[in-house]
Amino acid sequence: MTTASRTIPLVNLSDFEHGDAATRTAFIQQLGDAFHGIGFVGVTGHGIPKVLIDDFYVAAKRFFALDTDTKRKYEVAGAAGQRGYTSFGKEKAKQSQVADLKEFFQIGQETAAMSAGERNPEVAEVPEFMTLGRELYRAFETKGNLLLRAIAIHLNLPEDYFAHYTKDGISILRAIHYPPITSEPASAIRAEQHEDINLITLLVGASAGGLQLQNQHGEWLEIVPENDEIVINVGDMLQRLTNNYLKSTTHRVVNPPREEWHLPRLSIPFFLHPRPEMSLEVLEQCVTAEHPVHYPPITAGGYLDERLREIGLKK
Question: What residues does the Fe2OG dioxygenase domain cover (predicted)?
Answer without folding.
Answer: 169-274
